[in-house]
């Protein structure tokens, strides 16, 4: 249901890029990003590119069992070409493209706001125009990485959990995202007694 609703809204608005973030850590944003990408890859008429843009704690490659030889940070630093950094991941009989992340020892927000990042995003949109591009971003409240990249983002899926939902309400996470569209809010760690909305809204 989430896949269908997100794709319908993206199609209606002509959006190609979907960013996935959360208010805090441990809300399940990377798991959701991987699962959503794999779900889209199962559609025969769709192609998907998953980009790990969490330079503070990249986990996509680990979760998908991908060996990283050069990732997003290498592209930004001109150590590796974009096409060489992207790998093809096979999930059962389905395939998707992945641009894995690399840990930035310092300056992750500066890299997010850099001209190199702008150029890379433009190249991704141009070279993979037939793909749905999913960006796994860092949590909003752990620094200014997400704020730095927001002006270039078309749409966002906000992942939160029952324990972190107060951060959404009290620290203005949605207001922080005014320059782009939040297409859905997914609430994880919901008990069975409160599953009327199946964990997302």
What keywords describe this structure?
201 residues, 10 helices, alpha/beta, 7 strands
Radius of gyration: 16 Å
Summarize the main sheet: 7 strands, mixed
Structure class: alpha/beta
The largest beta-sheet arranges its strands as 3-4-2-5-1-6-7
How would you describe the overall organization of this protein?
The protein has 201 residues and is α/β, with parallel strands linked by helices. The protein is built from ten helices and seven strands. The protein has helices at residues 2-13, 29-41, 60-64, 72-76, 82-85, 108-112, 115-127, 145-149, 165-170, 173-176; strands at 17-21, 47-52, 87-91, 94-99, 131-136, 155-161, 181-188. A seven-stranded mixed beta sheet has the order 3-4-2-5-1-6-7. Strand 3 (87-91) and strand 4 form a beta hairpin. It is globular. It starts with a helix and ends in a 13-residue tail after the last strand. The relative contact order is 0.22.
Concise account of the structure shown:
The chain is α/β, with parallel strands linked by helices. Helices cover 36% and strands 21% of the residues. The chain is built from ten helices and seven strands.
Chart the SSEs and their pairings.
Layout: H1 2-13, E1 17-21, H2 29-41, E2 47-52, H3 60-64, H4 72-76, H5 82-85, E3 87-91, E4 94-99, H6 108-112, H7 115-127, E5 131-136, H8 145-149, E6 155-161, H9 165-170, H10 173-176, E7 181-188
